[in-house]
Automatic annotation (TrEMBL):
Keywords: ATP-binding, Nucleotide-binding, Transport. Belongs to the ABC transporter superfamily. GO terms for molecular function: ATP binding; ATP hydrolysis activity. Residues 6-233 form the ABC transporter domain. It comes from the Bacteria. Gene3D superfamilies: P-loop containing nucleotide triphosphate hydrolases. InterPro entries: AAA+_ATPase (IPR003593), ABC_transporter-like_ATP-bd (IPR003439), ABC_transporter-like_CS (IPR017871), P-loop_NTPase (IPR027417). This is ABC transporter.
Length: 302
């Protein structure tokens, strides 16, 4: 059993003078939920499109479970399924009919799995309605359902939580964790660190078409800067004057404090001792988010 589900090397993709991917390497361990992170325009969708065989790279190669990703006739590896950008369906057919058509088209006819998959994604009650009337969240769930009909060993999802309500996000996380616990592998993209943090152990961060970080979230956490807090007091001007070593800066209506927990505690104790009441204090940017911004802001969005 291979330990590597996906091995992409040196992927480069240009659109005229835009280099969407510049010699990108990506390795996804079998049985993991791997996050692909990056700000808008970093190249996530382009990379997933390449991995799903929807576009050809200008250079590089992709292997899935030790075999080339697509065969000589351009057919996708039978163990891979997913979507890049948004999942697409025939709008005037029902959700169920869309899945049946996709299943029948597959080499390994998955029609018999359609009902179970609809049920798994909570779509049974609306499976007989036309997709044209589906909400964004329902389409996303139908997209995941369509991928699961293939029973893929590697599931590739582009911003799967997009459009889902909190309950939908919770259910999706549970589903992806279950798939990984059963030995499946998931590669998902996101532009939100918090989402990736909730699901993934390993992460690849793209910035302007190149890999700016690849490794465990744990290692990233260890090197991450102090978190950022939002602070409002009864007198922000005095509070700012009491801050040492540029611990706090003015930020519109309130202050931004960048400090490790001990320094924050000492600052708050000092404010209270000076009679400066605290009106609001919460973490506004986590250490991992700050790390993400630091890593990706050099290139910026394009
Ligand atoms: N079909 C295309 N034609 C021209 N340029 C493209 C095309 N697809 C992507 N690009 C460019 O390639 C770069 C990477 O885009 P991509 O959509 O892969 O980024 P992304 O990380 O998925 O962004 P987002 O989070 O906004 O979806 C961008 O500069 C984009 O404008």
């Amino acid at each position: 059993m291979p330990t590597t589900a996906l091995d992409a090397r040196g992927l480069t993709k240009r659109y005229d003078d835009v280099v969407a991917l510049d010699a990108v390497d990506l390795r996804v361990a079998a049985g993991s939920v791997h996050g692909l992170l990056g700000p808008n325009g970093a190249g996530k969708t382009t990379l997933l499109r390449v991995l799903l065989g929807l576009t050809h790279p200008d250079a590089g190669a992709v292997h899935v479970f030790d075999r080339p990703m697509s065969d000589s006739r351009g057919r996708l590896h039978p163990d891979v399924a997913g979507f890049a950008e948004a999942p697409r369906f025939y709008p005037f057919l029902t959700g169920r009919r869309n899945l049946e058509l996709l299943a029948a088209y597959d080499q390994d006819d998955g029609t018999g799995r359609v009902e179970a998959v609809l049920d798994r994604l909570g779509l049974t009650a609306r499976a007989g309605s036309r997709v044209a009337g589906y909400s964004l969240g329902m389409r996303q769930r139908l997209g995941v359902a369509a991928a699961l009909v293939r029973r893929p060993r590697l599931l590739i999802l582009d911003e799967p939580a997009n459009g889902l309500d909190p309950a939908g996000i919770r259910d999706l996380r549970e589903l992806l964790r279950e798939l990984a616990a059963d030995g499946g592998t998931v590669l998902l993209s996101s532009h939100q660190m918090a989402e990736v943090e909730a699901l993934c152990d390993e992460v690849t961060i793209l910035g302007s078409g190149t890999v700016v970080y690849d490794g465990s979230l744990q290692r990233l956490r260890e090197t991450a800067p102090a978190p950022e807090y939002r602070l409002r007091t009864v007198d922000d001007e005095v509070a700012l004057a009491l801050a040492e070593d540029e611990l706090a800066v003015a930020a519109g209506d309130g202050l931004t404090v960048r400090a490790p927990a001990e320094a924050l505690d000492a600052y708050v104790a000092k404010l209270v001792a000076e009679g400066i009441g605290i009106r609001e204090l919460h973490q506004s940017v986590s250490p991992l988010e700050r790390m993400f911004f630091t890593l990706t802001e050099a290139g910026g969005a394009r």
